[in-house]
Amino acid sequence: MKAGIIGGLGPQSTVDYYNRIITEYQKIKGIDDYPELIIESLNMTRILELINQENLDELAVQLLKSIKYLASSNAEVALIASNTPHMVFEKLNDNSPIPLISIVEETCKTCKNNNIHKVALLGTGFTMGSSFYQEVFSRAGIEIIIPERKEREHIHSTIFRELEHGIITENTKNSYLRIINRMVKEESIQGVILGCTELPLILKQDDSPVILFDTVEIHINRLIKELVK
Amino acid sequence: MKAGIIGGLGPQSTVDYYNRIITEYQKIKGIDDYPELIIESLNMTRILELINQENLDELAVQLLKSIKYLASSNAEVALIASNTPHMVFEKLNDNSPIPLISIVEETCKTCKNNNIHKVALLGTGFTMGSSFYQEVFSRAGIEIIIPERKEREHIHSTIFRELEHGIITENTKNSYLRIINRMVKEESIQGVILGCTELPLILKQDDSPVILFDTVEIHINRLIKELVK
Questions:
Q1: In angstroms, how far is CA B205 from the centroid of its own chain?
Q2: Cα separation of B43 and B7, whole Å?
Q3: By the CB < 8 Å criterion, does B36 face chain A?
């Protein structure tokens, strides 16, 4: 089975998906086997412009066009290698010619399996400020807690100024951990969703007082199950 | 303009192409601009089986199928991010719906511009043992020198056992440099073509007594010219 990936949002994360998909696939199928993939790498700036303008109809149109390219290139399943564009996932899923794997739905299942009732969401300002995580999680009876406004602004700006460019600093890492620690103390969160594909590059489980949900890892694990069927 | 890439041959090299295309593109267009790319990542083992079986007709059929996927996904130009499959380049070029950029032809132009008359070719056993580099270069009046049989076997096996898996050792690097030095002394080569996309990972210009032609760099530079038009 061939898988399609909508990538470029950003490129660092696309490389991370690509390498991890191959590694996880080979753990099951052996070092000499390789998955067949087709990756559509979009212009991140144009996609972010649509999100900034809240032009979600056009965002869905653009992403659906790419999904159709993947499908016409023989991909039988696809995913978007980025959290933020999942704000239009339902629209895409309704119109896609092939099954799509949602990073939000898969993360929700994993939280449920871990008996989580209250979980923090870190991600871009778009992801934390939208309701697409909340909608999926509330149906599963899980409460999503987002950081305070200033914390959200800090996380958003460091993702784009540092993580998207592969810049990982101890300073930014510690600032994220202070936010997590505050939410553990004040909000009694039981876990943290790393709801941006760049966040696992900086936040590791050993540093956190609560369980971290690596959405990329969860997303890839689900894809691998399809690919090795 | 959107570019198509046939990748996965191997994955390490595909990531290298992807990162370098974005970096070179942004050097011209600015850090906030991103090229639109579509990457078809093939199962390297299957492709190598066809090459091992000398089933070049089927190799061309498979690659052409992938090129057509890229074209139907709106790519207006494409390249194969690997030297070895260029053994069927002319057949692909004759049948492709979009222009293809040949790593061999572009390297030949670069050698000619550098006033090279005699150049060594390092690559996989397939690349060194085939005539597709020779054919293009002889038309330009440039003589291709390949290493001796034992040297070719050594280069081939270390490419697949080490470089394809990201393993870079001082030992293998020095063994390559001994081969280059012998060819400089005995064959009077004026340069060396790094005719495998993994070789620039281990051989650097500073280590070599003659000019190294990084075929990946040459290939990407030509693509960038198209993308920024």
A1: 17
A2: 9
A3: yes
CA distance A52 to chain B (A): 15
Q: What is d(CA B211, CA B193) in angstroms, rounded to the nearest whole number?
A: 9
- Joined tokens for residue A125: 């300002």
Q: What is the DSSP string of B62-89?
A: HHHHHHHHHHHTT-SEEEES-SGGGGGH
Question: Cβ contacts (< 8 Å) between B70 and chain A: which residues?
Answer: 73
**Residue with structure tokens 């696309």?**
A14
Residue A143 tokens read as 């409460």
Sheet (strand A211-214) strand order: A143-145, A118-122, A191-194, A211-214
Please say whether the beta carbons of B228 and B25 come within 8 A: yes
How many CB atoms lie under 10 A from the CB of residue A210? 18
Q: A-contacting residues of B 51-80, CB under 8 Å?
A: 69-70, 72-74
pLDDT tens digits along A7-47: 999 898 899 999 999 999 999 999 999 999 999 999 999 99
Predicted local distance difference test score (pLDDT) of residue B198: 87
pTM of the model: 0.94
Neighboring chain B residues of A162 at a CB cutoff of 8 Å: none
Answer whether A120's CB lies under 8 Å from A148's CB: no
B36·A43 Cβ contact <8 A: yes
Note whether A131 and A158 are within 8 A (CB): no
Contact call for B15 and A18, based on CB within 8 A? yes
Nearest to B36 among A19, A38, A42 (CB): A42
Strand intervals (E) in chain A: 2-7, 36-41, 77-80, 100-101, 118-122, 143-145, 191-194, 211-214
Write down the ipTM of this complex: 0.93
pLDDT digits (tens, 9 = 90+) for A166-181: 899 999 999 999 999 9
Residues 6+ apart with CB under 8 A from A151: A179
Please give the structure tokens belonging to residue B35. 């090229």
